[in-house]
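== Polypeptide entry ==
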Amino acid sequence: MPPTPTEVLDRWKTYLEEMRADTGWTLRNQELDQQRLEALREMRELIGKYLQGEINTAGFSQTFQYKAAAEWEAFGLKGMNGAMFLNKLVRHITDENRLALKLRAALKTPQSPDEARTAMRTLAAYLEEQVGKGVVTRSELQPARHAVFLSAWHNSSDKGAPPATFGPGDGQAPQPSAAAAANAASGSVEPAVPDIVEPEPGGEAAQSAHAQAQWALAKIGRKFNCKVWIAPNDRQQNWNNETLGALSISKLPWLGMDEQSQGLSR
C-alpha cells in the first residue's frame, strides 16, 4: 500500500495541535488520567480479593457494578461488556461454585498471549455449554461479550499499572491459593481448567470461530456508534442468526489510498 498522502498527515497533525492547544480539553484529560490511576488500585484490590476467595462472585459483581457507575466511570465499564455482563452471569447461571471456578481461572493474570487466548476460549466454552444445556438462553447471556470483559480486567492488572497495596512486587494480581480453589469448587467439579484445542486451519471449527470473532467485534463497534467494515468475502457468513454483511458498511470511506488499493475494500 502506498504511503499516506502528505495532505492527510498534515490534516491530522493540525487536529493534534488544536487538541493540545485546548487548555480545557487538556485539563479534563489530566483529571481523567488521575481518576484512572486511583481506580486502577481499587480495581486490582477487588480482583485480588476475588481471586483469593475473600469475596464470592455475587459480592464481586455487586461491588463492580456500583464502582463502575461512580468512581470507575472514567473506564466506561458499567455497560453490556462490563458490569452488566458480570451481572448476567450471576443472575442466570445457577451453579455458583462452578461459575466461580471458571471465572477465577479466566481472570488470573495471563503470563503470555497464548495463556490469555486459552483462558478466553475456556470461559467461552463454558458459557456455550450453559447455553447448550438450556440453563440460559444466548440472548440472556450474550456470551460473546466475555472477551471485552476479560480484557478490561487483564489490563487493570498490567505490570505497567500503579502498584496495588496488596500485590506482590511485580504488580500482578495474586493467584488463587489451593485452599481458595478448593472452596470455590464443588466435589463434582474438576480442579483444573482444561485447554481448548486450536481449531484446524481452514476447518469448519476455525471458520465458525472466525465468524464469531468478527461478529463480536462488529457488535462492539456498533455499540460505540462506529461504522463497521467487514471484508466482502466474509459477509455471507452467519453468527448468532445474523449475517455479517448486515453489520457492515458497503465500502470503506476514502482513506488516502490510490484507486486500486481502495477498490480492494469493495
User: Anything to note?
Assistant: The mean pLDDT is 75. Residues 24 and 30 are 10 Å apart (CA to CA). The radius of gyration is 21 Å. Residues 23-51 form the longest helix (29 residues).
